[in-house]
Amino acid sequence: MNRYKVVKIASVFGILGNLFLLIIKGIVGLITNSQAMIADSINSASDIISSILTYIGNKIASKPKDEDHHLGHGKAEYIYSMLISVLIMLVAITVFKDSVFALFDNNVFNFSIWYIIVCIITIIIKLCLFLYTSNVAKKYHNLLMLANSKDHRNDMIVTFFTLVSGIFMYYGFNFVDSIVGIGISIFILITGIKIFIQSYDILMDKAMNKETQKEVMDIIKKYKEVKKIQHFNATPVGYLYQVSFTIFVDGNLSTFASHEIANRLEKEISALDDIYVTIIHVNPI
Known about the structure:
It contains eight helices and three strands, in the order αααααααββαβ. The chain is mainly alpha-helical. The protein has a three-stranded mixed beta sheet, covered by helices on one side. The chain is elongated, with a radius of gyration of 25 Å.
């Protein structure tokens, strides 16, 4: 199964799972008048939108290169990841504001056993989604899935504290509900900022990671004919990189021989998992 089909399936699972959680958390939040549970349900609503954006971004990114997009549409992943991060931050600000108001309004908590049940169901579903999307993100180097997996992980933590706040409120500590809501909002905001920075770095053509660059350099060093290299450049193309550089070889070599070295280098470097294409210019020395 190819990369984009796997991400598509994961997105659909995310939409269905979060839709179910939104409904049950929204109902229980309104019944119990819990700000933490209502905040948690709003978070689920944002998760649905995130999964939809993941689906759309993945669909665009899966399109092959064409006359107008010579390097394909891979950066759509990062554009939509950035949109998801902005959505996450907006949700965090909304939850923070509502929780602060609720703290001073002194809301009355109406305990229900369904509060506990919904929290447990949420944690189980989110754990399954986290493990699944995290595996997809690592296997296919997909930032959209990485953003979703972090979102699912955060939801587990958020719901755990929602559960803790319910226990405290059962014993009369109603202020804990709003404090947990504030804590949840800060946690969500930090996650959104981190995803935004990751997306921004790729869209601004941040250099490839040191590990991959070392792999490329190690391949070049194996070629004793290469006397030196200049103008090394790595540009992100979706989740891969376009690598270009200039090699200097013995000026007494024939044109064919010197370009054959470059051809072998290009083929070997392009075989690396993180490389989309390799372009080498040859100069005599």
